[in-house]
Design brief:
It is built from 5 helices and 18 strands. By secondary structure, the chain is an alpha+beta fold. It folds into 2 domains: about 30 residues; about 270 residues, Jelly Rolls (Sandwich), CATH 2.60.120. It has a 7-stranded antiparallel sheet, with helices on one face. The radius of gyration is 22 Å and the shape is globular. Bound molecules: 2-acetamido-2-deoxy-beta-D-glucopyranose (2 copies). This is 2-oxoglutarate and iron-dependent oxygenase domain-containing protein 3. Its cofactor is L-ascorbate. InterPro entries: OGFOD3, Oxoglu/Fe-dep_dioxygenase_dom, Pro_4_hyd_alph, Pro_4_hyd_alph_FE2OG_OXY. Keywords: Dioxygenase, Iron, Metal-binding, Oxidoreductase, Signal.
Length: about 300
């Protein structure tokens, strides 16, 4: 009887040890050293300052806007869960008209570029005959010729929602970096992304490479991401990772969570591959250079 108990105890200890080792090796394997924002947290706002890189020196400087203070902010208080749900419906609606053959689809709200198969189509370009019927309905951009169907994609309400969200994010960035919101301008691209676990087919699907936004897009000074899905509820993988020297620091997506950061090399980052489910987000970036500003996407 006693021996049996002992054997059970030893067996139990071994199982725990094995589990611990497995957990330890998994924890090490994903290379994550710190979580800046857990999915389960509701952050009123967290700001982490990092020293600015020299990337801004090779661009024209706009005093009172170009980063002197660099860093990262995360907030769950800028956009409500309900706003996130509504803007996600807009993303779903737009992206449902296309979709990359690979796992990453985008819809650029400024240019109207939408992933379809291995290419992009322009959602905003008019197709079909010009004429009175066209004129009468010309308030609706995004009428898109698909087969024989002409569809109205976005409504004025959808664009209004985008503008509200953009404005709130702009204010949050200005506040965090101690600059005036009016010195920031929306810049391109600004887009919805939908990522699932399907393997990449073209370079456009390869979202997971480490990069610096200011190197990729020279106009960016401040980048923001608004998450529209929940990590581990809607998808697995897909965490945002700041790749610092000696540390990988993650932001776990949460619908309504805004993550923003200065766009230079001080914020080298990547997104983990999504391993299941679907991850929705919207990218909104700002420039200090009025020459690179774009108007809000709108009905034209
Ligand atoms: C991922 O999305 C693409 C469309 O972009 C679709 O064809 C594919 O079936 C999806 N994969 C999964 C695993 O849902
Ligand atoms: C950070 O992650 C990368 C893989 O993305 C890994 O090669 C590197 O060792 C990690 N760094 C640390 C400090 O864990």
């Amino acid at each position: 009887m006693r021996r049996k108990w002992l054997r059970a105890a030893v067996l139990g200890a071994c199982t725990s040890l094995a589990a611990l080792l497995l957990w330890g090796s998994l924890g090490g394997e994903d290379g994550i050293t710190e979580v800046l924002a857990f999915r389960s947290e509701v952050l009123p706002g967290r700001f982490i300052e990092v020293p600015c890189s020299e990337d801004y020196d090779s661009h024209r400087r706009f005093e009172g806007c170009s980063p002197r203070k660099c860093g990262r902010g995360i907030s769950d208080a800028v956009i409500t869960r309900d706003e996130a749900r509504r803007i996600r419906s807009v993303a779903e609606k737009g992206l449902s008209l296309g979709g990359s053959d690979g796992g990453a689809s985008i819809l650029d709200l400024h240019s109207g570029a939408l992933s379809v198969g291995k290419h992009f189509v322009n959602l905003y370009r008019y197709h079909g005959k010009s004429g009175s019927k066209m004129m009468r309905t010309s308030w609706a951009v995004g009428r898109w010729y698909f087969g024989d169907k002409i569809q109205t994609v976005f409504s004025e309400e959808d664009f209004q929602l985008y503008r509200d969200v953009r404005q709130k994010v702009q204010l949050a960035i200005a506040q965090a970096f101690g600059i005036s919101a009016s010195s920031l301008y929306l810049t391109k691209p600004t887009f919805f992304s939908r990522i699932n676990s399907t393997a990449a087919r073209t370079a456009h699907d390869e979202y997971w490479h480490a990069h610096v936004d200011k190197v990729t897009y020279g106009s960016f000074d401040y980048t923001s991401l608004l998450y529209l899905s929940d990590y581990l509820d809607d998808f697995g993988g897909g965490r945002f990772v700041f790749m610092d020297e000696g540390a990988n620091r993650t932001v776990e997506p949460r619908a309504g969570r805004v993550s923003f950061f200065t766009s230079g090399s001080e914020n080298l980052h990547r997104v983990e591959k999504v391993c299941w489910g679907t991850r929705y987000a919207i990218t909104i970036a700002f420039t200090c250079n009025p020459d690179h500003s774009i108007a809000d996407p709108a009905l034209t």
